[in-house]
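Comment thread on ticket #2218

A.B. wrote:
> Attaching the input chain for the structure job we discussed in standup.
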Amino acid sequence: MMEKGQYELQCDVQDVAPVQNLTVKWYKGQTLLSQTSFTDTSRTPVNEVAKLLITADRADDGAQFWCEAELNLGAEGPQPPPKKTSEPLSFTVHFKPIIDETKLPSTVTVFRGYSVVLVCEAEGNPKPKISWSLSENVDGDKLTVSESTPENVHCNASNSVDTTTRQVKVYKPEDYLPLIAGLIAVAVAFISVIFIFNYSIYYKTAKMGRYSLKDPKPSTQAECPVQLSQKSVVVEYGGSVAVNCSASVPHYGMGWEASEGGVGKTRDSVITWRVSDLREWDIKPFCYINYDITHDTLCQVELPVTVYKTPDSVSISIVNHTRPMMEGEQYELQCDVQDVAPVQNLTVKWYKGQTLLSQTNFTDTSRTPVNEVAKLLIRPNRTDDGAQFWCEAKLDLGAEGPQPPPKKTSEPLSITVHFKPIISETKLPSIVTVFRGYPVVLVCEAEGNPKPKISWSLSENVDGDKLTVSESTPENVHCNASNSVGTTTRQVKVFIQVIPIIDKTKLPSTVPVFRGYSEVLTCKAEGSPKPTIRWSLGANGIVDNENLTITELTPEDVYCNASNSVGWTARRIKVVLKEDYLPLIAGLIAVAVAFISVIFIFIYSIYYKTAKMGRYSLKDAKPSTQAKCPVQFSQKSVVVEYGGSVAVNCTASVPHYGMGWEASEGGVDKTRDSVVTWTVSDLREWDIKPFCYINYDKTHDTPCEEELPVTVYKTPDSVSIGIVNHRGPMKEGKQYELQCDVQDVAPVQNLTVKWYKGQTLLNQTTFTDTSITPVNETTKLLITADRADDGAQYRCKAELNLGAEGPQPPPTKTSKPLNAEVYYKPKHSNSTETIVKNNEVTLDCTVKAKPAPTYTWHSEHLKEKINSPVLLSSKLSPGNYTCTATNSQGSDRKVFIVQQKDRTTFWAIVISGVVVAVALIVTYLIYKFKCSKNSII
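C.D. wrote:
> Ran it. Output below, let me know if you need it in another format.
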């Protein structure tokens, strides 16, 4: 960035809901710059963008800007509110140079004969280039100016942003300093002579005239004749101290002089300096003695006193850093020692766990308590994650001080170190060998902080620390371990190992060779690594080649052996030698074809009557070569699981001269037994085609063979269901595609995938692929979401229908259920409803919808806003009341018509009662009237 340029920062928040509770906060370092709220009422996850306009300043160079997304969900939400923080964005700000004016004054004085060095230092980004403008340009930050330098020089500091120039004016005054220095030297010499003369006179009269050697006494310059009980004293602040001073000669008075605990002059030979509560830091007590009556020989001895105080507290912290540390970056630890004295005896020791890392001493001579700070630079690595750092303040006060020396330790500082993942190479080799039909599980484990996410790169990415590789896996796979620090990738080379399989279509089991002619046999085999082909000719030796030329001299049985590092496969070829009479026969036929034809018909008719109809009977029947091969299988066909066992008997129905089984696994050599069994205990070949052969003619001219149909199957490793290209709830009326993935199943032409909703079969899919080796299959189902589907469970089931010979019931595998969530708009069963007003009226607008709807009521009779689904009141006036139910999918209205109760029935009952009452009264009066008349007569 360029200083003073405006830039816009953008914070992208992915897949968050509800967005109206989202606040995005902007920070520079630990300082909150701004925050953004959102008014979108969407309840489903959305992507939001917040922006911040900044003006770049040189102080921002190297600063870290970051944004934080916080969901404030109220008092009922999680506390503290959930938040997620972006990676910091470090800024580089380019700014023009600023020359340091304190180091480069605007005016400089240069005396004749002398020179001055100017220093021009400038701060800028990129780092500025310094040059000087004189009569010619001079590069460098230093310039020597003298009397020959121009009056005005300019320092130029320039970088890619701009250039800054500072002018320096050079003044050149006359220099009288040598003259002044000469006069001072003469005056000093004269004064020195006068001083020496006067001092010699004083020494003779004042010193040598008063002293003699007649009665010598120790002078004040000699050793003072007193002894202290302690050579020095170390005492804690507020503590007590007591030291004796003893005279070694007669004296005229001795005592202690001190700011605390002084002792007046006394004639005792031992006096004690004592303080019970020492509160002075720089106390200097001394013991004095007068051992001459004239008091001219006073001497004194000072007692060195060290007053110490242990620290009030010792604490450790990280300077300008609060988050987890990054491996390989440098951080500064700070140890604060509060209120300690004397600081020159203080040693701060740094520890990691129980290991001493470093120690710091101090040269400050202050005797009073001070606060000291020690710092330690560390560059943490992954082994430091969770390590505890601490510092210890120790006062080493010498032999006279307390033993052991007093110390105080900080609380431990536990650090968290984030480091990029390291994949365990011992658990994930760089090369892995996979045999066909034997999958191998690779395990990729990685150590990192934060915990790394493991994924595999193949044709498509696969999440998880385990990967099953088989012969269908690509040659190179990569394990990726990633976290917020970085990504580590390890390549694994997959070598597929497949036992050789000989191509039987190109190499028949029986080959005729006519005398005098040769045949070329070709043996081709597939396998991994590529197989080596070798022919075995018995006593005739070995031929290393794919092709073998056979003649009449070739042994009856030859073998093709295909081998690699996985194993070997052999195929036996029977060489049948035949005489070739074709030229002679062709000549004879050419001469007498017509004659022979007539004779042939005549002879054949006689032969048919005598040899066929007369000589043959059922007693000694022989099957012809055109009839079905005279063998029977114990099973017409076989269905066996991959890796399973199989055993089938082949029984001869006629006498024979040899029978056996030919197969790539479990073959049985020719034997005279009438029953031979083909057995495989661990069948690992998908396309196996065993056949039973029999020779029932002594000349071996009529061999036949019968193939046993074998189906090798494998149930799927996994069956999974999902929605194609969709996340979140479905919406009513929209179409969605369900996908069912069936992994590693064979044979696929026997596979049926069934789709269910709950227990109801919706559809089923079959496959026409004729592959007999395991494959991955995908089938899809198109559905239209309906409100009735909300909460329904979809699943798919893979079923292998292997016929009557297969396992019963057929093997199946079912996916985990897919729970459907459908959003649908409110929909009332009817749009209007008439309500006859009674004492209390209930208007119920409740409707089923998802998400749950909100309700609003509208009527000219309603004076307040009502949001409940039910309107219950005895004061509702007749009229229309409209209820609207709304959610994110739409809205629906229903009109309630409230009518006044009809009084017609009431009045009809009243009038009828009155009429009946009047009729009764009239009838009664007539009756009374008639009765009265009869009685008068």
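A.B. wrote:
> Thanks. Noting for the ticket: Confidence is low (pLDDT under 50) at residues 202-221, 607-626.
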